[in-house]
Design a protein that fits this description.
Order of helices and strands: EEHHEHHE
Strand order of the largest sheet: 3-1-2-4
Distance between the termini: 31 Å
Radius of gyration: 13 Å
Shape: globular
Low-confidence stretches: none
Mean pLDDT: 86
Number of strands: 4
């Protein structure tokens, strides 16, 4: 039996002023599935991501910012990587939400 995997992901969205935001999250679902849930407003969805979709802005996964960290073997590890990645992206000047 394969162990359950967890994933970190980064979603890029655009606010009403045209500024890009980056949402960092983690889940037991693959990033593509989690993006669909955010876009459809299913399950827990970060307001900062969902509201940009509602305003007609397209959400997209930024694979270049997170794919090298997946898959992870525990939720605890995913939560630690989520916080670390959000902090790293903020330090690089990205407008980051989530990651807490």
């Amino acid at each position: 039996m394969n162990p359950r995997h967890y994933y970190v992901y980064v979603i890029e969205a655009v606010d009403k002023r045209g500024s890009r935001i980056f949402y960092v999250g983690q889940s037991a679902l693959r990033p593509e599935e989690r993006l669909s849930q955010h876009a459809e407003g299913k399950r827990y969805c970060a307001t900062c991501v969902t509201k940009y979709h509602v305003h007609g802005k397209k959400l997209k996964l930024r694979w270049d910012l997170f794919s090298q960290y997946n898959p992870l073997l525990s939720r605890d590890q995913a939560e630690r990587v989520e916080r670390w990645l959000a902090k790293k992206l903020r330090a690089r000047g990205y407008n980051v939400r989530g990651g807490t």
